[in-house]
Automatic annotation (TrEMBL):
Aminotransferase class V domain location: 26-243, 303-400
GO molecular function terms listed in the Swiss-Prot or TrEMBL record: transaminase activity
UniProt organism field: Rubellimicrobium aerolatum
Pfam families, per database record: Aminotran_5
PANTHER family documented for this protein: CYSTEINE DESULFURASE, PYRIDOXAL PHOSPHATE (PLP)-DEPENDENT ASPARTATE AMINOTRANSFERASE SUPERFAMILY
Keyword 4Fe-4S: no
Domain of life: Bacteria
Record SUPFAM superfamilies: PLP-dependent transferases
Lineage, highest ranks first: Bacteria, Pseudomonadati, Pseudomonadota, Alphaproteobacteria, Rhodobacterales
Record carries keyword Transferase: yes
Entry keywords, A to Z: Aminotransferase, Pyridoxal phosphate, Transferase
InterPro entries per the UniProt record, alphabetical: Aminotrans_V_dom, PyrdxlP-dep_Trfase, PyrdxlP-dep_Trfase_major, PyrdxlP-dep_Trfase_small
Gene3D superfamilies for the chain: Aspartate Aminotransferase, domain 1, Type I PLP-dependent aspartate aminotransferase-like (Major domain)
Listed name of the protein: Aminotransferase class V-fold PLP-dependent enzyme
Amino acid sequence: MTAFDAPWVRARFPAFAVPALRDQSFFENAGGSFPCAPVVQRLTRFYTERKVQPYAPYAASQLAGAEMDEARARLAAMLGVQTHELSFGPSTTANTYVLAQAVRKWLKPGEAIVVTNQDHEANSGPWRRLAEDGVEIREWRIDPATGHLDPEALPDLLSDGRVRLVCFPHCSNVVAEINDVARICAIARAAGARTCVDGVSYAPHGLPDVGALGCDVYLFSAYKVYGPHQGIMTIREDWGRELPNQAHFFNGDTLYKRLTPAGPDHAQIAASAGIADYLESLSAHHGGPATGAPAARFAHDLMRAREVHLLRPLLAALAGRNDLRLLGPTDPDRRAPTVALELPGPAEPVAAALAPHGIMAGGGDFYAVRPLRAMGVDPAKGVLRLSFTHYTSEEDIDRLLRALSAVLPGATR
């Protein structure tokens, strides 16, 4: 592996060449990343050359359909699942809601599901609403001081054999601790339960090998993985076939259609192949494999190593302050680079005060009302969230630290 080439990486993101964004440091990546150049190029090409109904017997239509098929096939391979086990939808929230409606009919009276209070509401609310139909909802609770979701607490929730589904995040969008998905899925599987993993806050930091994780469903958002605004869901074929069809009756035999009733956004699906383009080029440029799942694994490790490197000085600086509370682990190896801070007062005005210093960040509850309340944080006050990815530079981190010192000049330990 060659040394991380930050200038090369940043040159692959058109936003960094925009004059209005010059001297600005983007720390709102958990809300959506900058799109990479291959995605922008593919989306532009589709809209200018191929914006026709796909799969018809003329050239432009055939090209449109082929590019949509390419996106599904290449991303599925990178995620370690079969091509037809990957589907696109308008958003992860919508994909989760539709999945929950299928599960509603799949569950039998007296059965239960497990949810956590660590999740973004998109992977909590739809499941909790099943209680309206008599489904028992069991809450797997985080440690109120640390936000940690303890796998050792899960077996007790599954002990009576009535739980059919466990829903939890790969990592929270405010706690940011990376959960041991493979271990949790193994515990659930041994108890006869399926698993649904919200990967929205993890996937931007490297696509996981979903096949190796052992989960039944994995969901994430392409627009947070340098792509267009689409939700991506993988589902194991055996469970996908078992769940009732949610699409048009004549699409029920096609796995990647049966849980996505909305008409697909052809252009955005096609453009999602650009995510694969970027990950493969990232790997190859740094001495790794050039294609497919091996390239994705290499890119994953490269991205994570870069982010851990950038996290260290930020977490060290925050550890020396007594005027704020860091949510989640202090060890950069155990967390995603999504840094949520509880401040003495409301967070949104602080985010606004950072803007003149060239820091693009946000304050609020970030749809994480349940975990904030569980950790004693008033959602109305919210948290200051500073989130970044592998394309963030050392200069960005330095600018952030200077800005925090200027805006929050409170006492240090």
